[in-house]
Design brief:
16 helices, globular, transmembrane
C-alpha cells in the first residue's frame, strides 16, 4: 500500500480509487508515510481529509424551530376542529386530513425555500380550492365518487408539496428528483421518531396509571394528536439540517429492499397460480394486487432517485429493471382483470378510475423500463431514467384532477 501511495501521489483519481479499495489500510500506510511526504500539497490535503471529524447532529436555529413548532400547533388545532366546532368526524377527516398533513409541509417549504409571493399564492389557491370543493360534496359516506375524490386529491396535494419543495428556477427538474428521494428520507426519519414517541407515550400513560391518574383519554385526544401533527414537520426539518444522517440510510434501505421485493413479488405470483386465486372475480384480491403494484412502483422510483452518480450501479439497475418488468406483468394482469369486470358487470366509478390509473402506470413503467434497459446496455445514462420518472408526473396530476373533479359529476355523486 505504501508503494502504491508513493506511485500515485500525483494522480488524484488513482489515489482516490486506492483509498476506496481499502480505507483502513490506506489510512495506516498514509500516516506512516506522512513524515516523508509532508512537503507535498497533495499529502497535506489528504492529511486534512483523513483527520477531519464530521460535526455532530445540527439542531438548527431557534427561529426555525419556532416556525416548525408553530406550524405543528396550527396543524394540531386543525386536526381538532371537529371537537372545537362540533363537526361530524366522519364528514371532516376523509375530506381534510390530507390538507392538514400536506398543507403544513407545503407551508414549511414555501418559507424554507423563500418562494416568490406569486408561487406561494398559486399553491395556496390550489389547496384552498381543493379543500372547498371536497367539503361541498354531498355528505354521503357510501359514495364511491366521494372516496375516489378524497384519495386522488391526496396526489394533487402531494404535487403541491413537491412544488413547494422543488420551487422554480433553472434547477427545478433536478429538484423534483431530489423531492422523490426526500419522500423516502422522510419515511425513514418518521419511523424511528414515531417508535420513540410511541414508547414514550406508553411509558407516560403506564406511569400515571400506577399512581391512580388515568390520563389515557386526555393524552390520546390532545398530546398524541399534536405529536402526530408535529411528526412530519420535525422529520422534514431534521432532514434539512442533517442530510447526512438519513441520506445514506434510505439509500441502503432501498438497495436492500429492492432485491427482497423482487423475490417476494416473484414468489407471490407463483403462489397465486398455485392457490388458484382469481383477480378476475375476486374484488378484494384485485384491490390488493393494485396496492402491490403502487407500492412496487414507489419503491422503484425512490430507489432510482437515491442511486449515486459516483459509484457503479449495475447490480442495482439490474434488480430495478427486473422489478419494473415484473411490475409490467402484474399491471397487465390487473388491467385485463379490470377490463373483464367492466365487460361482465358494467361501468362503475371505481372500475373506471382503476382502469385509467393502471393504464397510465403501465405506460410509465414501459418508458422507465426501456430507459433502464438502455442503461444496462450502455446506451443511456442514469439521468435519462430520472427524466423519464420526473417528466411523467404531470400526467398523474392531470388524471388525479380529472377523477376528483369530473367523476362525482359524471356519476351523479354515486
Amino acid at each position: 500500500m505504501k508503494d502504491s501511495i508513493r506511485q500515485h501521489l500525483a494522480e488524484p483519481r488513482q489515489l482516490e480509487l486506492l483509498y476506496r479499495s481499502n480505507k483502513i489500510a490506506f489510512r495506516q500506510a498514509f500516516y506512516d508515510l506522512y513524515p516523508e511526504l509532508q512537503a507535498s500539497p497533495v499529502a497535506a490535503f489528504w492529511r486534512e481529509r483523513l483527520t477531519y471529524e464530521p460535526e455532530g447532529l445540527h439542531w438548527g436555529k431557534q427561529k426555525e424551530w419556532g416556525i416548525v413548532l408553530g406550524l405543528a400547533v396550527l396543524a394540531g388545532i386543525a386536526a381538532k376542529l371537529p371537537l372545537i366546532l362540533g363537526i361530524n368526524e366522519e364528514f371532516f377527516y376523509p375530506r381534510n386530513l390530507g390538507f392538514i398533513l400536506f398543507g403544513s409541509l407545503s407551508a414549511f417549504f414555501c418559507w424554507k425555500n423563500q418562494l416568490e409571493t406569486r408561487q406561494v399564492l398559486r399553491i395556496a389557491a390550489a389547496g384552498l380550492s381543493g379543500m372547498l370543493y371536497l367539503n361541498l360534496l354531498p355528505a354521503n359516506p357510501n359514495s364511491d365518487t366521494l372516496i375516489l375524490a378524497c384519495l386522488h386529491v391526496l396526489f394533487v396535494l402531494w404535487w403541491l408539496f413537491g412544488f413547494s419543495h422543488a420551487g422554480g428556477g433553472q434547477q427545478r427538474e433536478k429538484r423534483w428528483i431530489a423531492f422523490l428521494k426526500f419522500n423516502g428520507d422522510l419515511l425513514v426519519m418518521c419511523v424511528p421518531l414515531a417508535m420513540a414517541g410511541g414508547l414514550l407515550s406508553g411509558l407516560t400513560i403506564g406511569l400515571f396509571s400506577l399512581i391512580g391518574l388515568p390520563i389515557e383519554a386526555f393524552y390520546t385526544e390532545y398530546i398524541l394528536v399534536f405529536g402526530l401533527a408535529a411528526l412530519p414537520l420535525v422529520s422534514a426539518y431534521l432532514i434539512q439540517t442533517n442530510p447526512q444522517v438519513v441520506g445514506k440510510i434510505s439509500e441502503v434501505v432501498a438497495s436492500l429492499f429492492s432485491p427482497l421485493v423482487l423475490l417476494m413479488v416473484t414468489s407471490y405470483l407463483g403462489a397465486i397460480l398455485y392457490s388458484g386465486k382469481n383477480p378476475y372475480t375476486d374484488r378484494e384480491f384485485l384491490l390488493l394486487f393494485n396496492g402491490l403494484l403502487v407500492g412496487v412502483l414507489a419503491l422503484i422510483f425512490f430507489s432510482i432517485a437515491g442511486l449515486s452518480y459516483q459509484r457503479k450501479n449495475r447490480w442495482e439497475i439490474g434488480v430495478l429493471t427486473l422489478l419494473s418488468l415484473l411490475s409490467i406483468l402484474v399491471n397487465a394482469v390487473a388491467l385485463s382483470a379490470i377490463a373483464f369486470r367492466l365487460a361482465e358487470w358494467g361501468v362503475t366509478p371505481n372500475r373506471m378510475a382503476v382502469l385509467g390509473g393502471n393504464a397510465l402506470i403501465l405506460l410509465h413503467l414501459l418508458w422507465v423500463s426501456k430507459k433502464l434497459i438502455g442503461v444496462l446496455r450502455g446506451k443511456e445514462d442514469l439521468e435519462a431514467v430520472r427524466k423519464a420518472m420526473q417528466s411523467y408526473l404531470p400526467v398523474y396530476l392531470v388524471w388525479a384532477i380529472l377523477v376528483s373533479l369530473l367523476f362525482p359529476i359524471l356519476f351523479g355523486f354515486a
